[in-house]
């Protein structure tokens, strides 16, 4: 089992795909992280707006060979191409589980400059090369959520 975290303004015992937004880093899906500190930091976004922040804790089964999966280990051309396609709503390969770095504020600035034409593809990759990836897992399959992601508890931050 892999321990994962999802921070929200509410407890999420039974996650579903239909409540997720489109055009995110890895497309529409339920987003989690294996980094507790990252989940707690994300909770500050809710708290700054005067909202409740709840860190939901799950365990994901490790034996998921029947599902398609991709892991991006760096901010490289494969990651940039995938995130670009997802954020622009373009056709791309959809996996059941996607893991890789988050387009946080610094990384998003680079992507935004690339989207607007200020940076070329090569310049964007050069900037991204120096960024240390955070971690996110996007589950796009409701079956994975229903059968293989197990709610453990929630903690109000």
Poorly predicted parts: none
What is the share of helical residues?
25-40%
- State Rg: 16 Å
Main sheet attributes: strand count, strand direction, barrel closure: 4 strands, mixed
Q: Output the number of helix runs.
A: 5
User: Strand order across the biggest sheet?
Assistant: 2-6-5-4
Give me the secondary-structure category: alpha+beta
Mean pLDDT: 91
> Which series of helices and strands comes N to C?
EEHEEHEHHEHE
Span of the ends, CA to CA: 24 Å
Number of strands: 7
How much beta, percentage-wise?
15-25%
The assembly state of the depicted protein chains is single chain
**Which descriptor suits the 3D outline?**
globular
Task: Note down, in words, how this protein is organized.
The protein has 157 residues and is of the alpha+beta class. The strands form 2 sheets. Strands 2-6-5-4 form a 4-stranded mixed β-sheet. Strands 1-3-7 form a 3-stranded antiparallel β-sheet. Helices cover 32% and strands 23% of the residues. Helix 2 (77-88) links the parallel strand 4 and strand 5.
Topology at a glance:
Blueprint: E1 2-8, E2 30-32, H1 36-48, E3 54-60, E4 69-71, H2 77-88, E5 97-100, H3 105-115, H4 121-128, E6 136-139, H5 142-148, E7 149-156
Parallel strand pairs: 4-5
Antiparallel strand pairs: 1-3, 2-6, 3-7, 5-6
